[in-house]
Design a protein that fits this description.
EC 2.4.2.21; cobalamin biosynthesis; Rossmann fold; Nict_dMeBzImd_PRibTrfase_sf; glycosyltransferase; Nict_dMeBzImd_PRibTrfase_bact; 14 helices; alpha/beta; 6-stranded parallel β-sheet
């Protein structure tokens, strides 16, 4: 708990002076003011995060956490739970969705086991296993409060390690069959939404499966009564280990003044946990893409975030964050290399 408290207490506001300096440069470039839209917004935000008019975003990493979920036994996913164990090593090998997109972006992928339902060590995957999956939230809390804190602090530790190694941009990803169920529950709690209105297909449920999944989420919330004013209570009652760990990365990056790029639907739930622990962390988040899950707009509205991409993606893994790394690079390259009106001798 000490690491979590110290991290939250270290998060401060963006540097508005350097944000204004960045905007002045952008407005002086040979283009109509504001005409590069979100590319300009990214540069201004990065100046505020890094406290500098110019910045280095070259060294980037995706941190992907994997865990299984007790609620899987309720039939909330059509995919075998063993896929969690099978797929996460492929992230590091560079052959999964996030693996190939990260390789293309020149980014490192760090895969972390925080709760996969297996005994063996997985090739290339860091072993921070809390235990072999959460409990079934439809029968009781997913985890203890202590485990919720531990999951967050694992994310903080790994993010801090990468920042200490010189990484300047972090992205978050995950792997966990059935994890759209706790994610939808978290969003339902924070937004007071009816699960039946926002539950989606996840890995491919049919219409009957979606109805059943929504009923399981509704039952879980009624049984556990998570307190929306207490993010740790929400995480422990209806969350997942990987969801907590991604929230930890968001908090750590914010405390170290490093931008953190969130992915899709599962990461929205993590961002809500982090945001409700420390609202200031929102300023350090860059939303990569708009997930095809039905609760996405509601979750992003709760966060006040506007994603840069809408690609009909719903893979997860960190794939959207890895794709967005290229846009961040493009924004910075434009910012550094485009001429100003003065430099171009265009005195209009």
């Amino acid at each position: 708990m000490n690491l979590l408290k110290q991290t939250i207490n270290s998060i401060s506001k963006l540097d508005y002076f350097h944000m204004e300096e960045s905007k002045k440069r952008l407005d002086s470039l040979i283009k109509p003011v504001g005409s590069l839209g979100k590319l300009e917004d990214i540069c201004i935000k990065l100046s505020g995060i890094y406290q500098s008019k110019y910045f280095d975003v070259q060294k980037k990493a995706i941190i992907a956490f994997a865990a299984d979920h007790g609620v899987y036994e309720e039939g909330v996913s059509p995919v075998p739970q063993a896929i969690t164990k099978i797929q996460i090593p492929n992230y590091v090998k560079g052959v999964s969705g996030v693996g190939v997109l990260s390789k293309f972006a020149g980014a490192k992928v760090v895969a972390v086991d925080v709760g996969i339902n297996c005994d063996e060590k997985l090739e290339g995957v860091l072993d921070y296993k809390i235990r072999k999956g959460t409990d079934n939230m439809s029968k009781g809390p997913s985890m203890s409060k202590e485990e919720a804190i531990k999951s967050i602090e694992i994310g903080i530790e790994i993010a801090n390690n990468l920042i200490d190694e010189g990484y300047k941009v972090l992205g978050i990803g995950e792997m966990g069959i059935g994890n759209t169920t706790p994610s939808t529950a978290i969003i339902s709690v924070f937004g007071d939404f009816n699960p039946k209105d926002i539950t989606g297909m996840g890995c491919g449920l049919d219409s009957n499966g979606i109805v059943h999944k929504a009923n399981v989420i509704e039952k879980s919330i009624k049984l556990n009564c998570p307190d929306k004013k207490d993010a740790l209570d929400v995480l422990s009652k209806v969350g997942g280990f990987e969801i907590g760990s991604m929230a930890g990365v968001i908090l750590a990056a914010s405390s170290r003044r490093v931008p953190v790029v969130i992915d899709g639907f599962i990461s929205y739930a993590s961002a809500l946990i982090a945001y409700n622990l420390c609202p200031l962390c929102k300023d350090y988040i860059i939303a990569s893409h708009f997930s095809a899950e039905p609760a996405s707009q509601k979750a992003l509205s709760l966060l006040g975030l506007d994603p840069m991409l809408n690609m009909n993606m719903r893979l997860g893994e960190g794939s959207g964050a890895a794709l967005a790394f290229n846009i961040i690079d493009a924004a910075n390259y434009m910012y550094e290399n485009m001429l100003t009106f003065e430099e171009a001798n265009m005195n209009i």
